[in-house]
Design a protein that fits this description.
Strands 2-5-10-13-15-16 form a six-stranded mixed β-sheet. The protein has helices spanning 2-12, 17-23, 70-73, 134-147, 163-173, and strands at residues 27-28, 33-34, 39-40, 48-50, 55-56, 61-62, 65-66, 77-78, 81-83, 87-89, 94-95, 100-101, 105-107, 112-113, 121-124, 129-133, 150-151, 179-180. 26% of the residues lie in helices and 25% in strands. The protein is built from five helices and 18 strands. The two termini are 25 Å apart. With 181 residues, the protein is α/β, with parallel strands linked by helices. The protein has two domains: 2-133, UDP N-Acetylglucosamine Acyltransferase, domain 1 (3 Solenoid); 148-181, no CATH class. The longest helix is centred in the last third of the chain and has 14 residues, at 134-147.
Length: 181
Amino acid sequence: MQTLLRKLCRRLFRHDPLAVLQARGLRVGRNFFMQDDCTIDAWHCCHICIGDEVTLGPRVTILAHDASMKRALGMVRLGKVTIGSRVFIGAGSIVLPGVTIGDDVVIGAGSVVSQNIPANSLAVGNPARVVGTCDEYLARQKALMETSPCFDEAYTARGGVTAARQEEMNTRMGDGSGFIV
């Protein structure tokens, strides 16, 4: 409900948080998608560069500053953050200052990215570590799609999914999972 109210207020008051960040210096490539409740370091976003075809899952945080030593040392550490193209960062992940994420990377949900992640990597955990290549991960998912139920746009909110279709999805998935467009 809170997210719905936030979206409504943004439309009513023509507030686009991405446009505000870009006006402050955030660089974002083509086809960037940021899901609900993401936080991009508002006052240091000029140190953040995001490539083409990047998706941030819900509640992703990207920081370009570390204020942990502000009281003790009187200074805040800054670090550039570079996110390559064709990157997916899973829900609830945190990207810390000074990190570079290469092209064609998947960051698993809930990960804390505190060091560079090379291109074509699957990284997960706290701290995030590379556990395989993106190519291997996609091949495993493609194979799983062959044996799992797959659902088209009629099963999505934008496709007007009905309660009956939602129940059908749950029945077809059983105790497992499925895929949707």
